[in-house]
Specification:
The chain is mostly helical. It has seven helices and no strands.
Length: 171
């Protein structure tokens, strides 16, 4: 992965020297850098906690850089923006730290809102009007993932008040 990261960083240097404005290629490179760190994390938080935490921070940093560029270039409601929010949700939902649970739910919520023309879900079973859902299949995947994450939290904590508080906080 080190050679891949080096290639990505060299590509960024080249793009910065060639273009004065941000490009989608730059966003894709940041996404690739983030993926190169995130790939290590699968199952390694327990075996290599210090290294996993560093990689988690690096992956988050590059995903957020990619997200900022995509929002700037494509707009908040673009599917690539939703995909990056979703990726951040999955990344943070796998982190063992409790502080990241609220962030994961927030990213799930932002992903859903970005493909439903900004519709805010207000209840646990609230559904936007289907004419506002631009990508019904993707909406279903996002909503299912969010529900699965809430179920995972319940299995881990058995604390419904805790789950309700962080869930309410992210609406």
């Amino acid at each position: 992965y080190e050679k891949v990261r080096q290639f990505y960083l060299e590509s960024l240097d080249y793009l910065h020297g060639k273009f004065s404005q941000p490009t989608m290629e730059e966003a894709r490179i940041y996404q690739g850098l983030a993926n190169s760190y995130a790939d290590f994390l699968k199952g390694n938080f327990k075996r290599y906690p210090a290294k996993a935490e560093r990689y988690f921070q690096s992956a988050t940093y590059y995903y957020l850089k990619s997200l900022a560029l995509k929002k700037q270039l494509l707009g908040e409601g673009h599917p690539q923006v939703a995909t990056t929010y979703y990726t951040l949700a999955l990344l943070t939902s796998d982190h063992p730290g409790k502080v990241y649970r609220s962030k994961a739910l927030n990213y799930f919520q932002r992903a859903i809102e970005s493909i439903t023309d900004g519709y805010r879900l207000t209840g646990d079973f609230d559904m936007p009007p289907m004419d506002r859902v631009r990508f019904p299949y993707y909406f279903n995947v996002l909503l299912t993932s969010k529900v699965y994450f809430l179920e995972k939290l319940y299995r881990e904590t058995q604390d419904t008040l805790y789950i309700r508080v962080i869930h309410e906080h992210n609406r």
